[in-house]
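I'm stuck. Protein, please.
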Amino acid sequence: MDIFTGLTVWAVEAITLAILLLSRWFYEREDFYLGWGAGFCLHGLGIILIVLRGEIPDFVSIQIANTMILGGVGAWIAGFLQFDGKPVQGYAAIPALIWIAGMFLNPVRESFAFRTALYNGAAMTGYAIMIGMLLRHSGPSRLTRRVLAGFIAVQFCASGLTGILTVSAQATSFGTTRHAMWLLFPSAFCFVAAIMSGAKLLTERSEEKLRALAVTDPLTGVLNRRGMIEAFHALQKVPSEEPRILALLHFDLDSFKTINDRFGHQAGDAVLIAFSRIGQSSLKARGQFGRMGGEEFASIVCVGDVVEAASIAEAIRMTLKRQPIPFGEHEIRLTVSTGIALSTAEDADLDLLLTEADRGLYAAKQNGRDRTAICSGPDVSVVPAADRPADEEELTIADPNQQVAVLKKLAALGKS
């Protein structure tokens, strides 16, 4: 098999893969499919133009063809950026720009050997960028990325060797150099390897998405009940030299059914989404926030003491109260009641925390809603609300002395 037959086979395979990737993009609308598909398409078409050298103008079969091939390398780089959820960066165009710039130099443009060296140098730059991107990633599929980076490194080394051998032999065409097949074999090998590694990368990505869907509420995007259970156990296992306190905050939107009855279920969905955003932003990465079902939400957070837990709950309560939620021509105002339960991390039992937080939530509802209550064993205390008049506080707190005692007890727990 001569070099042009091999290049033709490679071009057909590249275009076939491009069609498959672009078809996948058409159905799933994932941008990285478009980037990778465009890369293989440009690569395949560029190689076809090279195969047609002698039958089409040299400007097309040399300058345009190699620009397309290197543009395909840039499209692959863009695809990797999109695969990782990053915006496409200008450095994706560097390989093609190196080739274009080199073509303005007469000694390079007029010499097959120098053109080959320039092309391989530009391709090596693109490969180096992709290797760096793959190795820097420390998230899921790290091993698969390293394997793929290894295959690209093989192509990187082969391209460098091809450029050196072509210049040293002062080759004048593909047919006059003994090392022409170096242009084919590494590409064919890396093509097959890239398909296998890329397929595994996509499979692992799909599995990761399925795992995320299993622990995520589809409406609000926050964790669901299962996700909160996993988050609790993960937070409980975080190593620490000092005793830690876990707080479970159980939220329930007040009079939520009224919102659905008055404005419709779409308004109810908008309220749930808005409250989820408030809850997540208020935590500021200090814990996990999720939807337990219906209009009930929960947060699991590591706190220093009961005051910090109450402060978080009050911040969420007051933020929701002060921020009307726009829906069409309406502004929906609502409040939330919260129950809090605390325990040391090593002794924390999720079922017990949920039970105590439910008791606190019930007390908050009984004391007029729009309140925060803390449960500790048999004692339940309602947190004084800063946005309520003092006389109203006296009416809603059944036993102030008991509340003070419970707060002191919980504060002591936080310091132990």
User: Anything to note?
Assistant: DSSP finds 15 helices and eight strands in the chain. Residues 3-214 form one domain. Confidence is low (pLDDT under 50) at residues 393-404.
